[in-house]
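pasting Polysaccharide biosynthesis/export protein for the record, 386 residues
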Amino acid sequence: MLLLAGCNSLPDSGPTEAQVKHAQHDPKKNNLGYGIVQVSPELIALLQSKAPPLFSSFDIATAGLSHASNDTVGPGDVLQISIYEVGSALFSPSSASMAASSASGTNTTPSSSTASSLPLVTVDGSGNIEIPFAGQIHVTGMTTNDVSLAITARLKQKSMAPQVVVRIVSDIANSVMVYGGVRHPSRITLTPNQERILDVIALAGGEDHTTQSDEDYTVRLIRNEQVAELPLKTIENDPQQNIVMQPGDRVQLVFQPRSYTVFGASGQVTQTQFSTPTLTMAEAISRVGGPIDSRADPNAVYLFRFENADVLRSLGMPIDENATTGPIIYKIDMMNPSNYFLADKFMMRDRDLIYVANASSNKFYKFFGLISTLVSPGITAAWIAK
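structre below
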């Protein structure tokens, strides 16, 4: 009894497997309401199915639709319209003097052609423009050539052989917003060249912190109310994720160094950065030296995480309907060889916490070592005296 009491009074680096299980069922200790789930092939499949979508999935979703040509007019665009006329011109300042001379009987020979540039025209929220003598014209979805033909058709009855040239001065409809950790956050105008996501990031000046690794940057893409995130390095390494930009896209570059923490009976208690686009649990554990043979319990390696609410509901965990995340503990038995395959499929996330439980016999060995330390000098002195 004295031996057991002495063992329990010794300090320790963390709970054993039995203590973790007991704390889960103790309402006083488990005030967050977490659950413990064994890592299994079914769990790996569930987590993979709930992973954020890849950028390539946006292209798959619109596979049957043609990509925008990036040369159409839309609300907010500013147009420069030039009109060329032959004979008596509607838009030339000389047309008024020619009309006056004609009324007075003076012969005036009209010039062969007259060019007139209208004041800049803005496409309104309904997609219309207002042109003198032509009226209101709906231009949303038209190319500049289509707009020229539409204005020309309206003026044919009022002008002699009119020709119209339309140019987009400020292109709002065919643009994307690039912001966050770039040098020049701005609106990037797309062209018929079909710029891709790395192109618009480069046009915005690239990463703001050039001394940092690309693994520390995350690209967040918002398209049609869908949101996807990928490490910048993943997009650079996988051409399928470097998708073509579409008008209205929003691209945010986020500087976010990812890290995980390790506690317990591991080779090193530390906070470690990912330094790679993706990281598995097996890689994370090996980076800190793995469980220590002398005091770890490889049967009980835990990963603490605030998991997405959808995953918790799929696992049958109680969670508030308004919550977006909730606490959970994933357990893996490293004494089972097949679980090493699972650890190589279990993906780590930013701020995950790995805990390697202490072996239940650890306190006994600590107590035995303490007794040996106290008794050994006396035995040595008695041996010398003898």
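Residues 60 and 196 are 16 Å apart (CA to CA).
The two ends are 34 Å apart (CA to CA).
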